[in-house]
UniProtKB/TrEMBL annotation, chain A:
The keyword Transmembrane helix does not apply. It comes from Pseudoneurospora amorphoporcata. Residues 31-50 have a biased composition (Low complexity). GO terms for cellular component: extrinsic component of mitochondrial inner membrane. This is 4-hydroxy-3-methoxy-5-polyprenylbenzoate decarboxylase. Keywords: Lyase, Membrane, Metal-binding, Mitochondrion, Mitochondrion inner membrane, Ubiquinone biosynthesis, Zinc. Lyase that catalyzes the C1-decarboxylation of 4-hydroxy-3-methoxy-5-(all-trans-polyprenyl)benzoic acid into 2-methoxy-6-(all-trans-polyprenyl)phenol during ubiquinone biosynthesis. Residues 31-62, 284-321 are annotated as: Disordered.
Automatic annotation (TrEMBL), chain B:
Its cofactor is FAD. It catalyses: a 2-methoxy-6-(all-trans-polyprenyl)phenol + 2 reduced [2Fe-2S]-[ferredoxin] + O2 + 2 H(+) = a 2-methoxy-6-(all-trans-polyprenyl)benzene-1,4-diol + 2 oxidized [2Fe-2S]-[ferredoxin] + H2O; a 4-hydroxy-3-(all-trans-polyprenyl)benzoate + 2 reduced [2Fe-2S]-[ferredoxin] + O2 + 2 H(+) = a 3,4-dihydroxy-5-(all-trans-polyprenyl)benzoate + 2 oxidized [2Fe-2S]-[ferredoxin] + H2O. GO terms for molecular function: 2-methoxy-6-polyprenolphenol 4-hydroxylase activity; 4-hydroxy-3-all-trans-polyprenylbenzoate oxygenase activity; FAD binding; oxidoreductase activity, acting on paired donors, with incorporation or reduction of molecular oxygen, reduced flavin or flavoprotein as one donor, and incorporation of one atom of oxygen. It is a peripheral membrane protein. FAD-dependent monooxygenase required for two non-consecutive steps during ubiquinone biosynthesis. Required for the C5-ring hydroxylation during ubiquinone biosynthesis by catalyzing the hydroxylation of 4-hydroxy-3-(all-trans-polyprenyl)benzoic acid to 3,4-dihydroxy-5-(all-trans-polyprenyl)benzoic acid. Also acts downstream of coq4, for the C1-hydroxylation during ubiquinone biosynthesis by catalyzing the hydroxylation of 2-methoxy-6-(all-trans-polyprenyl)phenol to 2-methoxy-6-(all-trans-polyprenyl)benzene-1,4-diol. Pathway: Cofactor biosynthesis; ubiquinone biosynthesis. It is found in: Mitochondrion inner membrane. Residues 39-433 form the FAD-binding domain. It holds the Pfam family FAD_binding_3. Component of a multi-subunit COQ enzyme complex, composed of at least COQ3, COQ4, COQ5, COQ6, COQ7 and COQ9. This is Ubiquinone biosynthesis monooxygenase COQ6, mitochondrial. SUPFAM superfamilies: FAD/NAD(P)-binding domain. It comes from Pseudoneurospora amorphoporcata. InterPro entries: FAD-bd, FAD/NAD-bd_sf, Ubi_Hdrlase_CS, UbiH/COQ6, UbiH/COQ6_monooxygenase, UbQ_mOase_COQ6.
Length: 352, 490
């Protein structure tokens, strides 16, 4: 018994000495890849390794621009400030979205997709939404109230095209970059689903909805643009659209998991029911009604003041008054045109 | 009456004839009420704990004269002649710490184990499946204990029981009742010259009755001996199953033949461990929910292998989804592998196959008996405590119990005490109870700590793990505790 124990301990010592010889190599290989000098394998390139602007690593996907931490911070501050000052800079809003998506948020959205069978299929097939992929004439031929027809009707009403999406550049993880791209390309479908127009008011309401649903920081920051709206619009946002956005965004399933390309023939109300989204009051209708109301009120005021002059007014005075009314009407119409133009120009940049 | 007869006979009959007459008298008397079959130690249960207890008693010169019996429901000859082809391994494996191995060596059983099937390992890689926080149990230069760098030995349970049986056969002197179920345990009767009313009597199938000076319950978690002694076992079920399998790996491991590494990843559903066996073989212990366990058991070998590989590589989100799939995990795994980054040298090598018929599962629970002893009763091993397998300590706790109980019996024998009395058994329970209780508690808390998939616990536990990993002395303290070679705290 003793002899065998001795033999064993001798074997252990021998084993220990061979082990000591190989340990440094093994330790180096096992210890954290971020500190070791071993060359990164292909899989490791996505890990955050520190680098400077002078030795930028190769891109993880076509179009990718790896940023240093300082560059990322600069992008966050710069794009945030400028796009707040000038909401028409869609490119900067896109960059801002990418600069704020990491850490955590874009991974959370990716994991939400990975937890859902359809989301997983989207990530695997990686479909892109463009005017080519969608077959616009076919969508126009679909019966009304299908998802595809609602979408195309919305595009026509707002006068926009699906081909205005910039490519993702600043998200390091290749799969998360696709998630951001997908979110961007689906944005118009969210518009169609909710019926919200591309005017600033509609965009802000949709961003609030998206923030409650996707938790992407950019959508949350965009809600601050509400403070740049008119007083009456702010009031409407506060009382109608913001509560609607929070309630629906939180209650609805993750809208990122909708495979829009496969839902085109489906009844849009059916899809809304499945997702748990109820469309808000039509914003364009409300705005139109309010404008008309305003005009009617003004006209009425004018007529009242005209009548108060009395029957003894002479013709000249009457003509003068009429000219005044016409001038005022022209001014009003001019204002309306300016506002409309502003909306169209402004909205194309807001749609990000 | 006897005395009167003796006196009367003495006058007429020679002494030797008188003796014979007396003997006949006694025999007649015993025929009317059969003498009880009294053993010093009756051990119920022929598992690792029971067998090593008997081996230790027989191997120790002080206790070797004790009359001992073993009652086991299984056919032990099958266990003794257990044999598998060299490249096939049983799915029920345990880790034996160097302390347990040393004990087995002292009682002469270690050399009866098939040494080609025993695999020592020297390093451990343990990491958090949610945050990837990692602790590497490798001996830093200079910190290795003099006894060697082995953290533990992986061994098939059958190899151990078979080796113990061979050693027991070599020692001899044990009345073995195999294939015998314990039908009932009662107290003995009070007789004219012998009061057995406090002595347990084991009724086994076939009508045989064994009276025990000391009845040892090594009869597992649902111990009949414990029930007889009226000892309650407290604890809870984890609502988890341990899925085991014998795996075939692509190679011998990153450390080669001489530096084997054990791996464990804590997933929110439970830890998954891969432990090295000789050559390209590894054994799997995957604690998971009962639903996941039944899914894993239903998968084709290809999909099962994919799931095991995924369990050490993919994100918990991917794993959760793959558990909802009925099939095609293999396909899903190869897609997700392209989008998951990891350091391949820090995780086990790729699994390439699973040995047929080795995928099985068992429910996990935590139990601790209120005490290990009663009047003429002692409990060892699983009868006394059941532990979560995440630290690989279950079998070693049983060996520790046996070692302590044998020491207690030896002390009682040398000091002329009754080995069955509570007084002489007291030192056994005082030595083992707290130590086992602390270990049970620590392992239980570890399981609970790592069951959280999100929330404030996750960053905290990762911070703790990284801190221990960075603090060399603290880490080697834990390693020595796990190996059973550290200073005794309790």
């Amino acid at each position: 018994m003793e002899a065998s124990a001795l033999r064993r301990s001798a074997a252990l010592v021998a084993r220990a000495s061979t082990r000591n010889a190989i340990r440094p190599a093994v330790c180096a290989a096992i210890s954290n890849s971020s500190t070791s000098s071993t060359p990164p394998t292909q899989l490791q390139t996505q890990q955050t390794r520190q680098f400077s602007a002078l030795n930028r690593p190769p891109p993880n996907y076509p179009g990718h621009v790896p940023l240093t931490r300082l560059e990322r911070l600069g992008l966050f501050v710069g794009s945030g400030l400028i796009s707040l000052a000038d909401p028409r800079r869609g490119d900067l809003i896109a960059s801002f979205a990418e600069a704020t998506a990491t850490p955590y948020f874009i991974y959370r959205l990716r994991d939400a997709m990975l937890s859902h069978p359809t989301g997983r299929r989207i990530l695997r097939l990686r479909p892109r939404i463009t005017s080519q992929s969608l077959n616009i004439p076919y969508l126009r031929s679909l019966p009304p109230n299908t998802v595809g027809r609602t979408y195309i009707d919305w595009l026509d009403r707002e006068g926009v095209s699906p081909d205005t999406r910039s490519a993702v550049r600043y998200i390091d993880d290749e799969e998360c970059a696709y998630v951001m791209q997908r979110y961007r390309e689906c944005h118009d479908f969210y518009h169609a689903l909710t019926g919200l127009p591309i005017v600033r008011e509609g965009e802000v309401a949709l961003k609030a909805f998206e923030f409650a649903n996707t938790l992407l920081p950019m959508t949350g920051f965009s809600v601050f643009a509400a403070f740049t709206m008119k007083k009456s619009e702010q009031k409407r946002f506060r009382e109608i659209y913001f509560p609607w956005a929070v309630k629906n965004g939180l209650r609805a399933k993750e809208v990122i998991n909708v495979f829009w390309e496969e839902e085109l023939e489906r009844d849009v109300d059916d899809l809304r029911r499945e997702l748990g989204v109820e469309p808000p009051p039509d914003l364009r209708e409300i705005r139109k009604r309010e404008r008309e109301e305003k005009r009617r009120r003004k006209e009425m005021e004018r007529m009242m003041s005209g009548r108060s002059g009395g029957p003894e007014d002479d013709v000249l005075q009457k003509a003068e008054k009429e000219a005044e009314v016409v001038a005022e009407r022209v001014k009003e119409m001019k204002d309306e045109v300016v506002e409309k133009v502003g909306e169209v120009v402004g909205s194309s940049s807001m749609r990000v | 009456m006897e005395a009167v007869a003796r006196r009367k006979a003495a006058a007429y009959v020679c002494r030797s004839c008188t003796r014979q007459f007396q003997r006949q008298l006694r025999r007649n008397y015993s025929n009317s009420a059969p003498r009880p079959d009294i053993y010093d130690v009756v051990c119920v249960g022929g598992g690792p704990a029971g067998l090593s207890l008997l081996t230790a008693l027989r191997a120790n010169p002080v206790t070797s004269h004790l009359r001992v019996a073993l009652v086991e429901a299984q056919d032990l000859s099958k266990v003794k002649s257990w044999k598998l082809p060299p490249n096939k391994y049983s799915n029920r494996c345990s880790s034996l710490t160097p302390t347990s191995a040393l004990f087995l060596d002292q009682i002469g059983a270690w050399e009866h184990l098939d040494q080609t099937r025993v695999q020592p390992y020297h390093e451990m890689q343990v990491w958090d499946g949610v945050t990837d926080a990692r602790i590497e149990f490798d001996w830093a230069p200079g910190s290795a204990p003099v006894e060697g760098t082995t953290i533990a030995y992986m061994n098939e349970n059958l190899n151990l029981t078979s080796g113990l049986l061979k050693r027991l056969e070599q020692l001899g002197g044990v009345s073995v009742f195999e294939g015998a179920n314990v039908e009932n345990i009662t107290f003995g009767e009070e007789m004219e010259d012998l009061d057995l009313s406090q002595w347990p009597v084991v009724h086994i199938s076939g009508g045989k009755q064994l009276t025990a000076r000391l009845l040892v319950g090594a009869d597992g978690a649902n111990s009949p001996v414990r029930a007889f002694a009226g000892i309650d076992a407290k604890g809870w079920d984890y609502n988890r199953h341990g899925v085991v399998a014998t795996l075939e790996m692509e190679g011998e491991g990153w450390g080669g033949e001489h530096t084997k590494i054990a791996y464990q990843r804590f997933l929110p559903t439970g830890p998954v461990a891969m432990l090295p066996m000789p050559g390209n073989v590894a054994t799997l212990v995957w604690s998971t929910t009962p639903e996941n366990a039944s899914l894993l058991k239903s998968l084709s070998p290809k999909d099962f292998v994919a799931m095991v590989n995924a369990a050490f590589r993919l994100s918990t989100v991917d794993l959760a989804f793959m558990h909802t799939q009925g099939t095609d995990q293999d396909d899903e795994y190869s897609w997700r592998l392209q989008h998951t980054s990891f350091n391949p040298r820090a995780i086990p090598q790729t699994v390439v196959g699973v040995q047929e018929g080795t995928v099985a599962s068992f429910p996990l629970k935590m139990r601790h008996a209120d005490t290990y002893i009663g009047e003429r009763v002692a409990l060892v091993g699983d009868a006394a405590h059941t532990i979560h397998p995440l630290a690989g300590q279950g079998l070693n706790q049983g060996q520790g119990d046996v070692q302590s109980l044998v020491k207690t019996i030896e002390f009682a024998v040398t000091h002329g005490q009754d080995i069955g009395s509570i007084m002489s058994l007291e030192s056994y329970v005082s030595e083992r109870y707290t130590a086992n209780h602390v270990l049970l508690g620590v392992v239980d808390k570890l399981h609970k700590l790592y069951s959280a998939g999100s929330g404030p616990l996750v960053p905290l536990r990762s911070l703790g793990l990284n801190a221990v990993n960075a603090l060399g002395p603290l880490k080697s303290f834990f390693m020595k505790q796990a190996a059973g070679s550290g200073t005794k705290i309790f």
